[in-house]
Write a structure and sequence with these properties.
CATH superfamily of the largest domain: Phosphoenolpyruvate-binding domains
Bound molecules: phosphoenolpyruvate, magnesium ion
CATH architecture of the largest domain: Alpha-Beta Barrel
Strand order of the largest sheet: 1-8-7-3-4-5-6-2
CATH class of the largest domain: Alpha Beta
Shape: globular
Structural class: alpha/beta
CATH topology of the largest domain: TIM Barrel
Amino acid sequence: MRASFTGRSVSRGRAVGRALLVVGRKRQFFRAEISEDRVEDEIARFKAAVAYASKQLEALIAKPPTQNAADIFDAHLLILESSTLLDGVAEVIRTDLVSAEWAVKTVTDKLVSTQRASADVHLRQKAVDIEDVSERVSNALAGGKSPLPPLPPNTVVIATELLPSTLIEFADSPPTAIITERGGWTSHTFILARESNIPAVSGIKRVTRRFDDGDLVVVDGDTGTVTFASKEEFERAVAERDGSAAAVGAVDSDESTDTGFRLYVNTDSTTKVARALEKGAVGIGLVRSEYLFPGIKGWPDEERQYRAYKAAAEAAAGREIRIRTFDFDLDQVSFGGREPEKNPALGMRAIRLGLARERNFRIQLRAILRANTEGNVSIILPMTAGVQDIKQVRNLIDDEFSRLEGIHFPKIGAMIELPSAVLVIDQILKYVDFLAVGTNDLVQYTLGVDRDDEMVADWYQSLHPAVLRSIARVIEAAKAAGKPASICGEMAGLPFYIPLLVGLGAEEFSLKLSSLAVVRRILRSLDRTQVEEIVRVVKDLDTTQAVEDALVAAYRTYWPDLLLTRT
Ligand code: PEP
Ligand code: MG
Protein backbone atom coordinates (compact mmCIF):
# COMPACT_ATOMS: atom_id res chain seq x y z
CA MET A 1 0.00 0.00 0.00
CA ARG A 2 1.18 3.53 -0.76
CA ALA A 3 2.25 5.73 2.13
CA SER A 4 -0.42 8.24 2.98
CA PHE A 5 -0.12 11.22 5.29
CA THR A 6 -3.11 12.74 6.96
CA GLY A 7 -3.24 16.37 7.97
CA ARG A 8 -5.96 18.96 7.84
CA SER A 9 -7.56 20.61 4.85
CA VAL A 10 -6.72 24.32 4.74
CA SER A 11 -7.56 24.95 1.10
CA ARG A 12 -9.79 22.75 -1.01
CA GLY A 13 -9.08 21.02 -4.29
CA ARG A 14 -6.85 18.21 -5.47
CA ALA A 15 -3.57 18.46 -7.33
CA VAL A 16 -0.64 16.32 -8.39
CA GLY A 17 2.84 17.80 -8.64
CA ARG A 18 6.53 17.60 -7.98
CA ALA A 19 7.76 18.30 -4.44
CA LEU A 20 10.05 21.22 -3.71
CA LEU A 21 11.19 21.81 -0.14
CA VAL A 22 11.12 25.44 0.96
CA VAL A 23 13.16 26.07 4.08
CA GLY A 24 13.99 28.95 6.41
CA ARG A 25 12.04 30.59 9.18
CA LYS A 26 12.36 34.30 8.66
CA ARG A 27 13.29 34.32 5.00
CA GLN A 28 12.56 31.31 2.88
CA PHE A 29 14.63 29.56 0.27
CA PHE A 30 14.66 26.58 -1.97
CA ARG A 31 17.56 24.93 -3.69
CA ALA A 32 17.88 26.94 -6.91
CA GLU A 33 20.47 25.54 -9.28
CA ILE A 34 22.66 27.57 -11.64
CA SER A 35 24.63 26.61 -14.74
CA GLU A 36 28.40 26.35 -14.60
CA ASP A 37 28.96 29.49 -16.66
CA ARG A 38 27.11 31.56 -14.05
CA VAL A 39 29.37 30.59 -11.16
CA GLU A 40 31.69 33.60 -11.25
CA ASP A 41 28.79 36.06 -11.63
CA GLU A 42 27.05 34.47 -8.67
CA ILE A 43 30.18 34.74 -6.52
CA ALA A 44 30.57 38.39 -7.56
CA ARG A 45 26.93 39.01 -6.60
CA PHE A 46 27.59 37.46 -3.20
CA LYS A 47 30.68 39.62 -2.67
CA ALA A 48 28.78 42.77 -3.58
CA ALA A 49 26.11 41.83 -1.05
CA VAL A 50 28.76 41.30 1.63
CA ALA A 51 30.29 44.71 0.85
CA TYR A 52 26.86 46.31 1.15
CA ALA A 53 26.12 44.52 4.43
CA SER A 54 29.55 45.59 5.81
CA LYS A 55 28.75 49.22 5.06
CA GLN A 56 25.43 48.90 6.85
CA LEU A 57 27.14 47.41 9.90
CA GLU A 58 29.88 50.04 9.93
CA ALA A 59 27.22 52.75 9.91
CA LEU A 60 25.43 51.04 12.79
CA ILE A 61 28.66 50.74 14.76
CA ALA A 62 29.40 54.44 14.22
CA LYS A 63 25.88 55.43 15.32
CA PRO A 64 24.43 52.58 17.39
CA PRO A 65 20.68 52.68 18.05
CA THR A 66 21.20 51.59 21.68
CA GLN A 67 24.15 51.58 24.04
CA ASN A 68 25.13 47.93 23.76
CA ALA A 69 24.32 47.65 20.10
CA ALA A 70 27.79 48.69 18.90
CA ASP A 71 29.32 45.55 20.45
CA ILE A 72 26.74 43.35 18.85
CA PHE A 73 27.27 44.88 15.42
CA ASP A 74 31.04 44.60 15.88
CA ALA A 75 30.60 40.89 16.42
CA HIS A 76 28.37 40.70 13.35
CA LEU A 77 31.02 42.40 11.25
CA LEU A 78 33.59 39.83 12.37
CA ILE A 79 31.29 37.00 11.36
CA LEU A 80 30.50 38.67 8.06
CA GLU A 81 34.14 39.13 7.15
CA SER A 82 35.32 35.72 8.37
CA SER A 83 36.85 33.38 5.85
CA THR A 84 34.51 30.64 7.07
CA LEU A 85 31.65 32.60 5.60
CA LEU A 86 33.34 34.27 2.62
CA ASP A 87 35.28 31.25 1.35
CA GLY A 88 32.68 28.77 2.47
CA VAL A 89 29.87 30.37 0.45
CA ALA A 90 32.03 30.79 -2.68
CA GLU A 91 33.01 27.15 -2.41
CA VAL A 92 29.41 25.94 -2.14
CA ILE A 93 28.36 28.04 -5.14
CA ARG A 94 31.26 26.59 -7.14
CA THR A 95 30.92 22.93 -6.20
CA ASP A 96 27.17 22.53 -5.74
CA LEU A 97 26.20 24.91 -8.59
CA VAL A 98 23.56 26.69 -6.54
CA SER A 99 22.42 30.30 -6.10
CA ALA A 100 24.23 32.60 -3.67
CA GLU A 101 21.09 32.66 -1.49
CA TRP A 102 21.10 28.89 -1.13
CA ALA A 103 24.85 28.81 -0.52
CA VAL A 104 24.61 31.45 2.24
CA LYS A 105 21.83 29.43 3.82
CA THR A 106 23.75 26.15 3.58
CA VAL A 107 26.91 27.57 5.13
CA THR A 108 25.26 29.58 7.89
CA ASP A 109 22.90 26.71 8.81
CA LYS A 110 25.92 24.50 9.34
CA LEU A 111 27.63 27.14 11.48
CA VAL A 112 24.48 27.68 13.51
CA SER A 113 24.05 24.01 14.27
CA THR A 114 27.70 23.68 15.31
CA GLN A 115 27.33 26.61 17.70
CA ARG A 116 24.04 25.30 19.05
CA ALA A 117 25.66 21.95 19.84
CA SER A 118 28.46 23.61 21.80
CA ALA A 119 28.78 23.10 25.55
CA ASP A 120 29.79 26.73 25.99
CA VAL A 121 26.81 28.99 26.58
CA HIS A 122 28.48 31.97 24.84
CA LEU A 123 29.07 29.96 21.73
CA ARG A 124 25.50 28.72 21.81
CA GLN A 125 24.26 32.29 21.99
CA LYS A 126 26.40 33.21 19.01
CA ALA A 127 24.07 31.13 16.83
CA VAL A 128 21.56 34.00 16.91
CA ASP A 129 24.24 36.40 15.66
CA ILE A 130 25.08 34.13 12.77
CA GLU A 131 21.41 33.94 11.85
CA ASP A 132 21.23 37.73 11.85
CA VAL A 133 24.26 38.06 9.64
CA SER A 134 22.81 35.48 7.28
CA GLU A 135 19.57 37.44 7.15
CA ARG A 136 21.44 40.67 6.48
CA VAL A 137 23.40 39.19 3.57
CA SER A 138 20.25 37.62 2.14
CA ASN A 139 18.53 40.98 2.36
CA ALA A 140 21.44 42.60 0.56
CA LEU A 141 21.31 39.89 -2.11
CA ALA A 142 17.64 40.62 -2.62
CA GLY A 143 18.39 44.31 -3.10
CA GLY A 144 14.78 45.21 -2.39
CA LYS A 145 13.43 42.74 -4.92
CA SER A 146 12.24 39.21 -4.60
CA PRO A 147 15.22 36.96 -3.93
CA LEU A 148 13.35 33.87 -5.04
CA PRO A 149 13.55 32.65 -8.60
CA PRO A 150 10.24 31.59 -10.15
CA LEU A 151 8.93 28.16 -9.22
CA PRO A 152 9.13 25.49 -11.89
CA PRO A 153 5.69 24.50 -13.28
CA ASN A 154 3.72 21.82 -11.40
CA THR A 155 5.50 22.42 -8.13
CA VAL A 156 4.10 21.30 -4.80
CA VAL A 157 5.70 23.47 -2.15
CA ILE A 158 6.54 21.66 1.08
CA ALA A 159 7.59 23.59 4.17
CA THR A 160 7.44 23.33 7.91
CA GLU A 161 5.70 26.68 7.78
CA LEU A 162 5.26 28.70 4.59
CA LEU A 163 5.44 32.44 5.10
CA PRO A 164 2.68 34.46 3.44
CA SER A 165 5.33 36.77 2.00
CA THR A 166 6.96 33.77 0.33
CA LEU A 167 3.68 32.81 -1.29
CA ILE A 168 3.27 36.38 -2.49
CA GLU A 169 6.74 36.22 -4.02
CA PHE A 170 5.52 33.24 -6.04
CA ALA A 171 2.61 35.25 -7.45
CA ASP A 172 3.85 34.94 -11.04
CA SER A 173 4.64 31.23 -10.77
CA PRO A 174 2.19 29.92 -8.17
CA PRO A 175 2.63 26.44 -6.73
CA THR A 176 0.22 23.71 -7.75
CA ALA A 177 -0.37 22.78 -4.11
CA ILE A 178 1.06 23.34 -0.64
CA ILE A 179 1.87 20.93 2.19
CA THR A 180 3.02 22.17 5.61
CA GLU A 181 3.39 21.10 9.18
CA ARG A 182 2.23 24.37 10.73
CA GLY A 183 -0.42 26.91 9.91
CA GLY A 184 -4.17 26.87 10.48
CA TRP A 185 -7.24 27.79 8.45
CA THR A 186 -6.90 31.50 9.23
CA SER A 187 -3.12 31.71 8.71
CA HIS A 188 -2.47 34.35 6.09
CA THR A 189 -0.70 31.83 3.91
CA PHE A 190 -3.83 29.76 3.58
CA ILE A 191 -6.11 32.73 3.23
CA LEU A 192 -3.98 33.59 0.19
CA ALA A 193 -3.89 29.97 -1.01
CA ARG A 194 -7.67 29.74 -0.96
CA GLU A 195 -7.95 33.03 -2.76
CA SER A 196 -5.73 31.65 -5.52
CA ASN A 197 -7.40 28.20 -5.53
CA ILE A 198 -4.22 26.41 -4.49
CA PRO A 199 -5.07 23.15 -2.67
CA ALA A 200 -3.28 22.90 0.68
CA VAL A 201 -2.88 20.45 3.52
CA SER A 202 -1.39 21.43 6.87
CA GLY A 203 -0.60 19.53 10.04
CA ILE A 204 1.71 16.85 8.61
CA LYS A 205 4.32 16.25 11.27
CA ARG A 206 8.00 16.52 10.30
CA VAL A 207 6.88 17.17 6.78
CA THR A 208 10.27 18.17 5.38
CA ARG A 209 11.72 14.81 6.41
CA ARG A 210 9.00 12.81 4.76
CA PHE A 211 9.48 14.20 1.26
CA ASP A 212 12.46 14.97 -0.95
CA ASP A 213 12.88 17.46 -3.75
CA GLY A 214 11.47 15.85 -6.88
CA ASP A 215 9.03 13.39 -5.20
CA LEU A 216 5.75 13.15 -7.08
CA VAL A 217 2.82 13.73 -4.75
CA VAL A 218 -0.96 13.95 -4.73
CA VAL A 219 -2.35 16.65 -2.46
CA ASP A 220 -6.00 16.23 -1.59
CA GLY A 221 -7.17 19.46 -0.02
CA ASP A 222 -10.70 18.09 0.37
CA THR A 223 -9.75 15.25 2.68
CA GLY A 224 -6.50 16.68 4.06
CA THR A 225 -4.37 13.80 2.81
CA VAL A 226 -1.17 13.48 0.83
CA THR A 227 0.05 10.39 -1.04
CA PHE A 228 2.87 9.67 -3.44
CA ALA A 229 1.96 9.70 -7.15
CA SER A 230 3.16 7.44 -9.92
CA LYS A 231 4.87 8.96 -12.95
CA GLU A 232 1.80 8.16 -15.10
CA GLU A 233 -0.52 9.82 -12.60
CA PHE A 234 1.67 12.92 -12.57
CA GLU A 235 1.82 13.11 -16.36
CA ARG A 236 -1.91 12.65 -16.70
CA ALA A 237 -2.58 15.42 -14.18
CA VAL A 238 -0.21 17.82 -15.93
CA ALA A 239 -1.86 17.14 -19.29
CA GLU A 240 -5.32 17.70 -17.76
CA ARG A 241 -4.23 20.91 -16.07
CA ASP A 242 -2.76 22.28 -19.27
CA GLY A 243 -6.02 21.47 -21.03
CA SER A 244 -8.22 23.09 -18.44
CA ALA A 245 -6.05 26.22 -18.17
CA ALA A 246 -7.34 27.20 -21.57
CA ALA A 247 -10.91 27.06 -20.27
CA VAL A 248 -10.31 29.43 -17.36
CA GLY A 249 -11.88 32.81 -17.72
CA ALA A 250 -15.45 31.63 -17.56
CA VAL A 251 -15.71 32.99 -14.03
CA ASP A 252 -18.63 34.56 -12.29
CA SER A 253 -20.61 36.75 -14.59
CA ASP A 254 -22.77 38.01 -11.81
CA GLU A 255 -25.73 40.07 -12.93
CA SER A 256 -26.91 42.54 -10.33
CA THR A 257 -24.66 43.57 -7.47
CA ASP A 258 -27.37 44.97 -5.24
CA THR A 259 -27.95 42.89 -2.14
CA GLY A 260 -28.90 45.58 0.33
CA PHE A 261 -25.58 44.87 2.08
CA ARG A 262 -22.26 46.64 1.66
CA LEU A 263 -19.63 44.25 0.36
CA TYR A 264 -15.99 45.30 0.50
CA VAL A 265 -13.00 43.25 -0.61
CA ASN A 266 -9.77 42.59 1.32
CA THR A 267 -6.60 42.69 -0.66
CA ASP A 268 -2.88 42.22 -0.32
CA SER A 269 -1.94 43.70 -3.65
CA THR A 270 -2.59 46.94 -5.49
CA THR A 271 -3.26 45.15 -8.74
CA LYS A 272 -6.33 43.43 -7.36
CA VAL A 273 -8.06 46.69 -6.42
CA ALA A 274 -9.54 47.41 -9.85
CA ARG A 275 -10.63 43.78 -10.25
CA ALA A 276 -12.49 43.89 -6.96
CA LEU A 277 -14.41 46.98 -8.04
CA GLU A 278 -15.19 45.50 -11.45
CA LYS A 279 -16.71 42.54 -9.62
CA GLY A 280 -19.02 44.86 -7.73
CA ALA A 281 -17.27 45.56 -4.41
CA VAL A 282 -18.31 48.92 -2.97
CA GLY A 283 -14.70 49.53 -1.98
CA ILE A 284 -11.62 47.95 -0.48
CA GLY A 285 -12.33 47.13 3.14
CA LEU A 286 -8.85 46.05 4.14
CA VAL A 287 -5.45 46.47 2.55
CA ARG A 288 -2.97 44.39 4.53
CA SER A 289 -0.21 46.89 3.91
CA GLU A 290 2.58 44.65 5.16
CA TYR A 291 2.11 42.49 2.07
CA LEU A 292 2.46 45.29 -0.47
CA PHE A 293 6.25 45.08 -0.35
CA PRO A 294 7.29 41.51 -1.11
CA GLY A 295 11.00 40.81 -0.84
CA ILE A 296 11.60 43.69 1.58
CA LYS A 297 12.31 42.77 5.15
CA GLY A 298 12.14 45.70 7.50
CA TRP A 299 10.36 49.00 7.05
CA PRO A 300 10.03 50.15 3.45
CA ASP A 301 11.08 53.76 2.82
CA GLU A 302 8.53 56.56 2.50
CA GLU A 303 8.67 56.98 -1.27
CA ARG A 304 8.20 53.31 -1.93
CA GLN A 305 5.26 53.23 0.46
CA TYR A 306 3.77 56.39 -0.99
CA ARG A 307 3.92 54.97 -4.51
CA ALA A 308 2.17 51.78 -3.44
CA TYR A 309 -0.61 53.55 -1.51
CA LYS A 310 -1.07 56.15 -4.23
CA ALA A 311 -1.38 53.42 -6.87
CA ALA A 312 -3.92 51.62 -4.70
CA ALA A 313 -5.90 54.82 -4.08
CA GLU A 314 -5.94 55.62 -7.80
CA ALA A 315 -7.00 52.09 -8.69
CA ALA A 316 -9.90 52.52 -6.28
CA ALA A 317 -11.13 55.34 -8.54
CA GLY A 318 -12.90 57.38 -5.91
CA ARG A 319 -14.25 54.38 -3.97
CA GLU A 320 -13.23 54.05 -0.36
CA ILE A 321 -10.00 52.14 0.28
CA ARG A 322 -9.09 51.29 3.85
CA ILE A 323 -5.37 50.86 4.35
CA ARG A 324 -4.39 49.04 7.51
CA THR A 325 -1.14 50.13 9.09
CA PHE A 326 1.53 47.44 9.27
CA ASP A 327 0.34 44.42 11.21
CA PHE A 328 3.69 42.71 11.52
CA ASP A 329 5.68 41.64 14.53
CA LEU A 330 9.16 42.61 15.65
CA ASP A 331 10.75 39.52 14.21
CA GLN A 332 9.58 40.47 10.74
CA VAL A 333 11.24 43.87 10.73
CA SER A 334 14.33 43.74 12.84
CA PHE A 335 17.90 42.60 12.63
CA GLY A 336 20.29 42.48 15.44
CA GLY A 337 21.31 40.11 18.15
CA ARG A 338 18.10 39.21 19.87
CA GLU A 339 16.22 36.01 20.50
CA PRO A 340 12.83 35.84 18.80
CA GLU A 341 9.91 36.80 21.03
CA LYS A 342 8.37 33.86 22.82
CA ASN A 343 4.81 34.85 21.96
CA PRO A 344 4.91 37.15 18.94
CA ALA A 345 1.10 37.20 18.69
CA LEU A 346 1.04 38.73 22.17
CA GLY A 347 4.20 40.72 21.75
CA MET A 348 5.54 43.78 20.01
CA ARG A 349 3.32 43.88 16.96
CA ALA A 350 0.75 45.93 15.01
CA ILE A 351 0.12 49.42 16.44
CA ARG A 352 2.14 48.60 19.53
CA LEU A 353 5.17 48.21 17.33
CA GLY A 354 4.22 51.37 15.46
CA LEU A 355 4.00 53.37 18.66
CA ALA A 356 7.27 51.91 19.95
CA ARG A 357 9.02 52.76 16.67
CA GLU A 358 7.46 56.15 16.22
CA ARG A 359 9.84 57.37 13.52
CA ASN A 360 9.02 54.41 11.28
CA PHE A 361 5.34 54.61 12.07
CA ARG A 362 5.21 58.30 11.16
CA ILE A 363 6.76 57.43 7.81
CA GLN A 364 3.92 55.03 7.09
CA LEU A 365 1.23 57.42 8.30
CA ARG A 366 2.72 60.21 6.18
CA ALA A 367 2.88 58.00 3.10
CA ILE A 368 -0.78 57.00 3.52
CA LEU A 369 -1.86 60.60 4.16
CA ARG A 370 0.02 61.85 1.10
CA ALA A 371 -1.84 59.31 -1.01
CA ASN A 372 -5.19 60.76 0.08
CA THR A 373 -5.44 63.54 -2.49
CA GLU A 374 -8.92 62.42 -3.56
CA GLY A 375 -10.29 61.82 -0.08
CA ASN A 376 -11.04 58.12 -0.61
CA VAL A 377 -8.31 56.71 1.66
CA SER A 378 -9.11 55.56 5.17
CA ILE A 379 -6.74 54.24 7.81
CA ILE A 380 -7.38 51.11 9.87
CA LEU A 381 -5.51 50.46 13.09
CA PRO A 382 -4.77 46.79 13.78
CA MET A 383 -4.99 45.24 17.21
CA THR A 384 -6.41 48.19 19.07
CA ALA A 385 -6.78 47.39 22.75
CA GLY A 386 -8.77 50.49 23.68
CA VAL A 387 -9.01 54.25 23.51
CA GLN A 388 -5.48 55.00 24.63
CA ASP A 389 -3.96 53.34 21.55
CA ILE A 390 -6.30 55.24 19.28
CA LYS A 391 -5.62 58.59 20.94
CA GLN A 392 -1.87 58.11 20.61
CA VAL A 393 -2.08 57.21 16.93
CA ARG A 394 -4.56 59.98 16.35
CA ASN A 395 -2.04 62.51 17.75
CA LEU A 396 0.56 61.28 15.28
CA ILE A 397 -1.89 61.44 12.39
CA ASP A 398 -2.99 64.97 13.37
CA ASP A 399 0.60 66.07 13.62
CA GLU A 400 1.66 64.63 10.26
CA PHE A 401 -1.50 65.93 8.63
CA SER A 402 -0.81 69.46 9.86
CA ARG A 403 2.52 69.48 8.01
CA LEU A 404 1.09 68.35 4.67
CA GLU A 405 -0.88 70.23 2.06
CA GLY A 406 -3.37 69.34 -0.63
CA ILE A 407 -4.72 66.24 1.05
CA HIS A 408 -7.90 65.24 2.84
CA PHE A 409 -8.10 64.07 6.43
CA PRO A 410 -8.77 60.32 6.33
CA LYS A 411 -11.50 58.37 8.06
CA ILE A 412 -10.00 56.35 10.87
CA GLY A 413 -11.18 52.90 11.86
CA ALA A 414 -10.21 50.33 14.46
CA MET A 415 -9.81 46.61 13.95
CA ILE A 416 -11.77 44.90 16.70
CA GLU A 417 -9.76 41.78 17.44
CA LEU A 418 -9.12 41.84 21.18
CA PRO A 419 -11.61 41.04 23.93
CA SER A 420 -10.60 44.32 25.59
CA ALA A 421 -11.77 46.24 22.54
CA VAL A 422 -15.11 44.44 22.64
CA LEU A 423 -15.58 45.31 26.30
CA VAL A 424 -14.95 49.02 25.73
CA ILE A 425 -16.52 49.22 22.30
CA ASP A 426 -18.80 52.12 23.27
CA GLN A 427 -15.71 54.13 24.25
CA ILE A 428 -13.78 53.22 21.11
CA LEU A 429 -16.69 54.29 18.93
CA LYS A 430 -16.34 57.86 20.17
CA TYR A 431 -12.88 58.09 18.59
CA VAL A 432 -13.24 56.32 15.25
CA ASP A 433 -15.31 56.64 12.10
CA PHE A 434 -15.83 52.92 11.54
CA LEU A 435 -14.99 49.46 12.85
CA ALA A 436 -13.65 46.33 11.18
CA VAL A 437 -14.25 43.18 13.19
CA GLY A 438 -11.17 41.03 12.57
CA THR A 439 -12.78 37.69 13.21
CA ASN A 440 -9.57 35.71 12.58
CA ASP A 441 -7.85 37.38 15.49
CA LEU A 442 -10.99 37.88 17.55
CA VAL A 443 -11.39 34.10 17.75
CA GLN A 444 -7.67 33.70 18.52
CA TYR A 445 -7.60 36.23 21.34
CA THR A 446 -11.05 35.54 22.78
CA LEU A 447 -10.38 31.83 23.10
CA GLY A 448 -6.62 32.09 23.69
CA VAL A 449 -5.88 29.81 20.73
CA ASP A 450 -2.92 30.47 18.44
CA ARG A 451 -4.48 30.75 14.99
CA ASP A 452 -1.27 29.48 13.38
CA ASP A 453 -0.85 26.46 15.59
CA GLU A 454 -2.27 23.43 13.87
CA MET A 455 -2.13 21.40 17.07
CA VAL A 456 -4.81 23.46 18.79
CA ALA A 457 -6.95 23.88 15.67
CA ASP A 458 -9.85 22.02 17.32
CA TRP A 459 -10.05 24.76 19.94
CA TYR A 460 -10.16 27.51 17.34
CA GLN A 461 -13.95 27.77 17.24
CA SER A 462 -15.53 30.57 15.27
CA LEU A 463 -18.94 29.50 16.55
CA HIS A 464 -18.01 29.62 20.23
CA PRO A 465 -20.80 31.43 22.11
CA ALA A 466 -18.27 34.00 23.39
CA VAL A 467 -17.25 34.87 19.84
CA LEU A 468 -20.84 35.20 18.69
CA ARG A 469 -21.74 37.39 21.65
CA SER A 470 -18.72 39.58 20.96
CA ILE A 471 -19.66 40.06 17.33
CA ALA A 472 -23.28 40.83 18.24
CA ARG A 473 -22.19 43.30 20.88
CA VAL A 474 -19.87 45.17 18.52
CA ILE A 475 -22.48 45.41 15.78
CA GLU A 476 -25.11 46.61 18.22
CA ALA A 477 -22.83 49.28 19.68
CA ALA A 478 -21.81 50.49 16.23
CA LYS A 479 -25.45 50.79 15.19
CA ALA A 480 -26.26 52.74 18.34
CA ALA A 481 -23.40 55.11 17.53
CA GLY A 482 -24.47 55.39 13.88
CA LYS A 483 -21.13 54.12 12.59
CA PRO A 484 -20.46 51.23 10.21
CA ALA A 485 -18.93 47.96 11.37
CA SER A 486 -17.69 45.54 8.76
CA ILE A 487 -17.24 41.85 9.44
CA CYS A 488 -13.75 41.08 8.27
CA GLY A 489 -11.66 37.93 8.34
CA GLU A 490 -12.43 34.46 7.08
CA MET A 491 -15.88 34.17 8.63
CA ALA A 492 -17.10 36.93 6.34
CA GLY A 493 -16.11 34.97 3.24
CA LEU A 494 -17.45 31.57 4.24
CA PRO A 495 -21.04 30.98 3.11
CA PHE A 496 -21.74 28.79 6.13
CA TYR A 497 -21.46 31.75 8.50
CA ILE A 498 -23.33 34.33 6.44
CA PRO A 499 -26.95 33.73 7.56
CA LEU A 500 -25.81 33.72 11.17
CA LEU A 501 -23.80 36.93 10.80
CA VAL A 502 -26.74 38.61 9.12
CA GLY A 503 -28.92 37.43 11.98
CA LEU A 504 -26.46 39.00 14.42
CA GLY A 505 -27.01 42.29 12.62
CA ALA A 506 -24.15 42.47 10.11
CA GLU A 507 -24.78 44.82 7.19
CA GLU A 508 -21.24 45.24 5.95
CA PHE A 509 -18.77 42.51 4.99
CA SER A 510 -15.15 42.69 3.97
CA LEU A 511 -14.01 39.50 2.31
CA LYS A 512 -11.60 38.04 -0.14
CA LEU A 513 -12.32 38.59 -3.82
CA SER A 514 -12.86 34.92 -4.56
CA SER A 515 -15.73 34.81 -2.04
CA LEU A 516 -17.51 37.90 -3.32
CA ALA A 517 -19.82 36.25 -5.85
CA VAL A 518 -20.91 33.38 -3.64
CA VAL A 519 -21.53 35.57 -0.61
CA ARG A 520 -23.49 38.00 -2.75
CA ARG A 521 -25.64 35.16 -4.03
CA ILE A 522 -26.38 33.99 -0.51
CA LEU A 523 -27.16 37.46 0.77
CA ARG A 524 -29.61 37.92 -2.06
CA SER A 525 -31.41 34.70 -1.20
CA LEU A 526 -31.73 35.28 2.53
CA ASP A 527 -35.09 35.70 4.10
CA ARG A 528 -35.03 37.98 7.15
CA THR A 529 -37.53 35.98 9.18
CA GLN A 530 -35.60 32.75 8.69
CA VAL A 531 -32.36 34.45 9.65
CA GLU A 532 -33.89 35.95 12.77
CA GLU A 533 -35.29 32.56 13.67
CA ILE A 534 -31.78 31.04 13.50
CA VAL A 535 -30.38 33.64 15.84
CA ARG A 536 -33.25 33.19 18.26
CA VAL A 537 -32.40 29.51 18.49
CA VAL A 538 -28.63 29.93 18.64
CA LYS A 539 -28.49 32.87 21.04
CA ASP A 540 -28.83 30.93 24.25
CA LEU A 541 -26.92 27.78 23.31
CA ASP A 542 -23.90 27.25 25.51
CA THR A 543 -21.48 25.12 23.48
CA THR A 544 -19.91 25.45 20.06
CA GLN A 545 -21.19 22.02 19.17
CA ALA A 546 -24.77 22.96 20.03
CA VAL A 547 -24.51 26.11 17.90
CA GLU A 548 -23.09 24.15 15.01
CA ASP A 549 -25.79 21.46 15.25
CA ALA A 550 -28.51 24.07 15.33
CA LEU A 551 -27.08 25.82 12.28
CA VAL A 552 -26.79 22.57 10.37
CA ALA A 553 -30.39 21.71 11.20
CA ALA A 554 -31.63 25.12 10.10
CA TYR A 555 -29.61 25.08 6.91
CA ARG A 556 -30.84 21.60 6.07
CA THR A 557 -34.32 23.09 6.01
CA TYR A 558 -33.70 26.47 4.43
CA TRP A 559 -30.39 26.44 2.54
CA PRO A 560 -29.07 22.89 2.04
CA ASP A 561 -26.41 24.24 -0.37
CA LEU A 562 -24.63 25.97 2.49
CA LEU A 563 -23.77 22.66 4.10
CA LEU A 564 -21.49 21.95 1.17
CA THR A 565 -19.55 25.15 1.66
CA ARG A 566 -18.65 24.71 5.27
CA THR A 567 -14.92 25.26 4.94
C1 PEP B 1 -8.57 39.37 11.16
O1 PEP B 1 -7.85 39.24 12.14
O2 PEP B 1 -9.69 38.86 11.05
C2 PEP B 1 -8.13 40.15 9.99
C3 PEP B 1 -8.96 40.52 9.05
O3 PEP B 1 -6.84 40.49 9.92
P1 PEP B 1 -5.64 39.46 9.67
O4 PEP B 1 -6.23 38.19 9.15
O5 PEP B 1 -4.77 40.15 8.69
O6 PEP B 1 -5.03 39.33 11.01
MG1 MG C 1 -6.09 40.49 12.40
